[in-house]
């Protein structure tokens, strides 16, 4: 998934309780003890969610939020570390039954499932919700349904094309998916947001972006776009059907469009309703201030489970020349990029595409330089070979957020000695991923990030580099790489039935892709966040871009 706009809207990445890169790691904070029943959790954020419609949003922050109001056939666990990324049943009774050599998957719905309207959730509703992913206008989120489920080439979703025949619903409790090819981990795929049930006929256009139809423990009671969001209990949700969501608070209140420094000051002071608040990662300038013993008790920190990178658009000249892309990889000073986000406390230098938390990942550095500070001589040699001794100009997209702009400036300065003039294009945070995911609006490069949808290479390399998955909207292959050898290797790995062997093969594919230099891996970011003194049950979730797992957080004293 796209690296999240987690709570504060900054590029906060998935927290790793295992701490693969060394250093301290803490996955829970607050006064301790279980969360009480009741109260309202306050969430302070500097950017609104990308989309409330589950087939539109696909960054870690909104994925975390979706679990409060939506349910899927399966879902990730509710725990820190690897326990949190284990897939288990949600709406379905189990994680699915494969047949036909893994090309057909059958799921059975539990009893007692209802939408917030009181209408029962049926297999037809699940099918309709999944079918929406093919709509060319709204299906810009998770790509896995479209990539894996067999569908007519002309299919454009239920509103335009009607029924999707490759998803069968023989009765109200049974749903059968017919895939293009065997996929051993389809039980994890149906945990994606595109598998949220939607009542048949509902959700056209922007309908669900303004008023979601809840299947989870909470529903939207008030939404002021870009300003605030209030959740209250969904009384049609039955806890007996849901072993994952603890749903202790009575509600959640988001306040958006807050300055990052203001959020930090409020969280440090911890006054009024801010004792009940959570937020995203702190600003770099605040790091030193949270080292006191009192604040450390309210601190969550850990190595990220995602990769922050700069995508290089291989369709744009001169970036269509592999030597130019390799030169940029050599030249970028990753130390100054890390300094821009707050130094070693908040990030490790990245060398490979896959982060340390992905199973089968290989630790290697294809474009080494002393201390990661860049090798200008090696870069200049490649540019000379490419006939670009006098450099060139390219446009770099980044978000309207101080940290991201600082990263762009660090890249701009690192490339100046090569006479590469980097024009920085700043895009509003709430629409950033949608813009850069539209090839017609893409510039030469973009700073972004990617997190595993579950800890497998299958969720990292194919979404980013399979050229056959380049689409007009919701495109995750920002490099627009369409290399026959890479595509063939992805197909070869997809046939491996042993998941461990497949992950090892993806580790080697990482090297093959980086030889083509379609991206510049920049950082494996860390999370450092404060929680209010009345917050309980808070931990960083490996599967949701380092955000505090919203389905488990609550208050120590609900009447405080």
From TrEMBL:
Gene3D superfamilies assigned: Dipeptide-binding Protein, Domain 3, Periplasmic binding protein-like II
Record flagged with keyword Metal-binding: no
One Gene Ontology term, aspect cellular component: ATP-binding cassette (ABC) transporter complex
Domain Solute-binding protein family positions: 86-469
Signal peptide residues on this chain, from the entry's feature table: 1-20
Top-level taxonomic group: Bacteria
A molecular function (GO) term: peptide transmembrane transporter activity
GO biological process per UniProt: peptide transport
Spans annotated as Disordered: 80-99
UniProt xrefs under Pfam families: SBP_bac_5
Keywords: Signal
Record protein name field: Peptide/nickel transport system substrate-binding protein
Taxonomic lineage: Bacteria, Bacillati, Actinomycetota, Actinomycetes, Propionibacteriales
